[in-house]
């Protein structure tokens, strides 16, 4: 990618959009009932339901299971998990919108979703309450403390599983790094590599890490998100914060020629290790 952003936001949108690949809907037959708006509905991060579906595939979800959708944002992933797997989802976010209840009812899963407004560091749940924990595009905001993984794993039943999907760096960031890679500063300093997250969980005796790898579409998720947002609305009509966010992502992808900024998934099981 190499195009001129000097006239942003009044750039040649056709040229910019054409530079960003879409994730093909055909690659996710389980999402055949969704259009691109549905894939990205009320999502603040990259990947949308593409990433959510891949994360869910790592878990052995069955109807009746209790699943914590940790820092779920607007709760689109909570509705997805309840609708497709029949699990009882505890949709938890500090800023959970009241509209989630109505949207869950419209999707026919209001009986499967319990809403909880809480701080991720002060979760109001008993130990060993959940069969699974699901967290998409949020974990790095609150969970880099060494004490957090053991705190979270205690909420899982023995044998229960956790999956995280999130932006990452391919390796840990070096001392000198292009400024364009440091999106959402200073939160970007809490973004790490899959290897770092593996070690972060392996330090606790309660976690067996089964998978912590770059997502094969990790870079593509960035492109797909940019393209969707630019097709949904002209930058000149966006709120300034949204316009600035898209500009930052475009600058990053313009500079990142080898996929240093990507996404990863981590899958872990609660298992007492000696």
Can you put this structure into words, describing what you see?
With 274 residues, the protein is α/β, with parallel strands linked by helices. The chain has a domain at 28-176 and 190-218 and 259-270: Rossmann fold, CATH 3.40.50.150. 31% of the residues lie in helices and 19% in strands. It is built from 9 helices and 7 strands. The longest helix is centred in the C-terminal third of the chain and has 16 residues, at 240-255. The relative contact order is 0.17. The model has no long low-confidence stretch (mean pLDDT 93).
Q: Please tally the helical runs, counting DSSP H or I stretches of 4 or more residues.
A: 9
For the termini, the CA-CA separation is 49 Å
Shape: globular
Order of helices and strands: HHHEHEHEEHEHEHHE
CATH architecture of the domain at 28-176 and 190-218 and 259-270: 3-Layer(aba) Sandwich
DSSP strand (E) fraction? 15-25%
Main sheet strand line-up: 3-2-1-4-5-7-6
Q: What structural class do the secondary elements suggest?
A: alpha/beta
What CATH calls the topology of the domain at 28-176 and 190-218 and 259-270 is Rossmann fold
Sheet with most strands: 7 strands, mixed
Keywords:
single chain; 274 residues; alpha/beta; Rossmann fold; seven-stranded mixed sheet; 9 helices; 7 strands; globular
């Amino acid at each position: 990618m190499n195009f001129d952003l000097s006239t942003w936001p009044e750039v040649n949108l056709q040229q910019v959009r054409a530079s960003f690949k879409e994730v093909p809907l055909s690659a996710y037959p389980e999402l055949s009932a969704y259009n691109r708006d549905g894939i990205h509905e009320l999502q603040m991060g990259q990947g949308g339901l593409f990433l959510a579906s891949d994360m869910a595939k790592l878990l052995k979800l069955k109807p009746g299971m209790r699943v914590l959708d940790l820092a779920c944002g607007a709760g689109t992933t909570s509705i997805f998990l309840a609708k497709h797997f029949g699990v009882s989802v505890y949709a938890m976010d500090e800023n959970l919108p009241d509209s989630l209840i109505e949207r869950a009812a419209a999707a026919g899963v209001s009986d499967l979703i319990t809403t909880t407004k809480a701080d991720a560091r002060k979760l109001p749940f008993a130990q060993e309450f959940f069969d699974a924990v699901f967290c998409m595009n949020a974990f790095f905001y609150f969970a880099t403390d060494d004490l957090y993984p053991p705190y979270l794993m205690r909420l899982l039943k023995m044998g229960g599983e956790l999956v995280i999907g999130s932006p990452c760096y391919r390796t840990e960031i070096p001392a000198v790094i292009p400024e364009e890679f440091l999106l959402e500063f200073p939160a970007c300093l809490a973004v790490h590599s899959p290897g770092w997250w593996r070690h972060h969980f392996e330090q606790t005796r309660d976690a067996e890490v089964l998978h912590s790898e770059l997502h094969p579409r990790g870079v593509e998720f960035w492109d797909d998100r940019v393209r969707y947002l630019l097709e949904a609305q002209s930058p000149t009509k966006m709120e300034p914060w949204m316009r600035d966010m898209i500009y930052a992502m475009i600058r990053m992808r313009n500079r990142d020629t080898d996929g240093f900024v990507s996404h990863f998934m981590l899958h872990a099981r609660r298992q007492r290790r000696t």
